[in-house]
Specification:
alpha/beta; 5-stranded mixed beta sheet; 13 helices
């Protein structure tokens, strides 16, 4: 059964991400060359998409297995708080790279809430966003969300995309109540029955069940919006323009970590636990096993990370058709196709 999660954009959450190590506004050509050819390692800050769940463990794998070092990088990994906050910190110079939901990025850009960033690789070929609840909540189908209270981070992709999902699923959006929660508290809110459901990625199911001690029920957005991508890798437009080879080296190392994590989920779970003590390694491994089917699709072929111009255009059309974008945009405004992996 497919299910999903979300990403987030709230500016308020950016303070949670305050960086203790300042990132340079851009590495010099000599630094880039040295990093990629056995010289001193180039220091890079990377943000996960959303806290430190198993779905983001591949970054820790890339670091632990030496993939970043081989590519010339000394990477500091910090927990993200959703797409908007990740983009804000990248554009603001507090991080060089980060992952987040492409649909959320389209909504932000298309509504004038973010700019000066680009996507350079896909992590998920299909969106994993959706609503999560547990057995006994009275929610088994989209229509059951009417009259219920849901929680998510302010401005998350799940909330921003919900009106479109509701329209396509026959839900009266005015009969659903949303309340705010942060990445760390959402599952606890569901476990305590303070809300009926939460915004979550499909792969969050094992962790939800570990926290709530109940069977999870997932309502994935991909069941009605199949062309949407999920998480992608972001960098600033400035970095992409001025340091394309550095971007390609980092992307390659991160995707190598992704492929290793998917092939070795138990080991990846243990690596995450080694670096993030609160990790439930079994739940992390289970998240990766669920995520595997979202990393490749029939259009991506055998190459991980590809982004297709036509599919991004379809995603934009879906959002425009639902009235979710205030201004027109084109795929190349949010994706640098020069730098994306090619199938």
């Amino acid at each position: 059964m497919r299910r999903l999660t979300r990403t987030v954009f709230a500016a308020a959450l950016a303070t949670t991400l305050a960086m203790t190590a300042a990132c340079s506004s851009g590495s010099t050509a000599s630094e880039e060359s040295a990093g990629g050819n056995g010289g001193s390692l180039e220091k890079v800050t990377y943000l996960t998409s959303f806290a430190n769940f198993g779905r983001d463990s591949y970054a820790w794998v890339a670091k632990e297995k030496g993939f970043f070092k081989e590519a010339g990088f000394d990477v500091e990994i910090k927990p993200g708080q959703g797409t908007g906050a990740v983009i804000q910190n990248i554009v603001g110079g507090q991080a060089h790279f980060g992952t987040g939901d492409l649909t959320a990025a389209l909504l932000l850009f298309g509504n004038g809430q973010a700019k000066d960033f680009v996507s350079v690789a896909a992590i998920h070929q299909r969106t994993m966003a959706g609503i999560a609840t547990v057995e006994g909540s009275g929610i088994v189908a989209p229509k059951d969300l009417e009259g219920k209270k849901l929680a998510d981070t302010a401005g998350s992709v799940v909330r921003n995309l919900f009106p479109t999902y509701a329209q396509l699923s026959g839900i009266d959006v005015n009969k659903v109540t949303w309340v705010n929660g942060d990445a760390q508290s959402l599952m606890g809110m569901l476990a305590s029955d303070s809300v009926d459901g939460i915004g979550q990625f499909v792969v969050g199911q094992p962790t939800i069940e570990a926290v709530t001690k109940k069977k999870a029920v997932m309502l994935p957005y991909s069941e009605v919006m199949q062309d949407l991508y999920g998480n992608v890798l972001f960098t600033s437009s400035k970095t992409a323009q001025e340091q394309p080879e550095m971007v390609k080296r980092f992307t390659g190392a991160l995707l190598k970590g992704l492929e290793y994590a998917l092939a070795n989920p138990q080991e990846a779970g243990e690596i995450l636990k080694k670096n993030v003590e609160a990790t439930n390694s079994a739940a992390a491994a289970a998240e990766l096993q669920l995520m595997a089917g979202y990393v490749r699709s029939s259009n991506s072929g055998t190459v991980v990370g590809t982004l297709d111009n036509g599919r991004v255009a379809k995603s934009i059309a879906i959002l425009q058709g639902a009235g979710a974008l205030k201004q027109n945009l084109t795929p190349d405004q949010v994706v640098d196709f020069r730098l994306t992996p090619q199938s």
